[in-house]
Design goal:
- It is a single chain.
- This protein is α/β, with parallel strands linked by helices and about 210 residues long.
- It contains 9 helices and 7 strands.
- A 5-stranded parallel sheet has the order 3-2-1-6-7, sandwiched between helices. A two-stranded antiparallel ribbon has the order 4-5.
- Strand 4 and strand 5 form a beta hairpin.
- The longest helix is centred in the first third of the chain and has 19 residues.
- It starts with 10 loop residues before the first strand and ends in a 7-residue tail after the last strand.
């Protein structure tokens, strides 16, 4: 467990979901296209179509489909290569998909001296550099690595739904905060939103 703030006293925490809340789209397909190109992405969707169909029919869980997709495209990649491509995506692409009003709200919290944490089901590798650039802490899905190579599986659970709460509570002492803001846009964010006394659900959707 770590502390984001240094001074004792009452503190404010802001928890932000990333995909669909801070961004105008899901960063997973956007990152894959950035990493492998459109042609390989479309071919991959064709190969993965049975899995994706089962997901759309709600016959398999979100985390299962996501792990299969990441495994298909990135299993066997050296972690150094994956992190390098992720950093490039974070620093050259993410700003193009960020909702301006969402970014303004995040920056307001930072200007007020609040602790700001991005809690995302996306992988750490393609969010780390952007979160650090903003001055935020990141809690996100981790990819499993064996002998410096991606296995194609998650390291632990997908950071989605109740797992967001588990990770937040493991890394932060919420009793230290007198105010907690939370921003999300999907059912997978609702357990995290329940941690807050100031809840914002789909707050930036109608604002361009």
């Amino acid at each position: 467990m770590f502390k984001l703030h240094e001074k004792p006293g009452n503190h404010t925490l802001a928890l932000f979901d990333f995909d669909g809340t801070l961004t105008d789209r899901d960063s997973l397909p956007d990152f894959i296209i950035h990493a492998v190109g459109w042609v390989r992405y479309v071919l991959g969707l064709f190969v993965l179509s049975p899995i994706l169909a089962l997901y759309l029919l709600k016959l398999i869980r979100n985390d299962v489909a996501k792990e299969k997709m990441l495994g298909y495209f990135f299993s066997g990649w050296a972690i150094e290569r994956f992190n390098t491509v992720g950093r490039d995506y974070a620093l050259t692409r993410i700003h193009q998909i960020i909702r301006p009003h969402a970014l303004a709200q995040l920056q307001w919290h930072l200007a007020e001296g609040h602790d700001v944490v991005i809690v995302s089901a996306s992988a750490e590798s393609w969010l780390n550099a952007w979160a650090a650039q903003q001055g935020c802490h990141l809690i996100a899905t981790r990819m499993a690595v064996q002998e410096n190579v991606l296995t194609g599986c998650f390291d632990g659970k997908n950071c989605y739904g109740q797992e967001k709460v588990t990770r937040v509570c493991a890394e932060l002492d919420l009793s230290e905060y007198s105010n907690i803001y939370a921003y999300g846009d999907s059912s997978g964010d609702k357990p995290m939103l329940a941690l807050a006394d100031k809840v914002f659900y789909k707050p930036f959707r109608e604002r361009k």
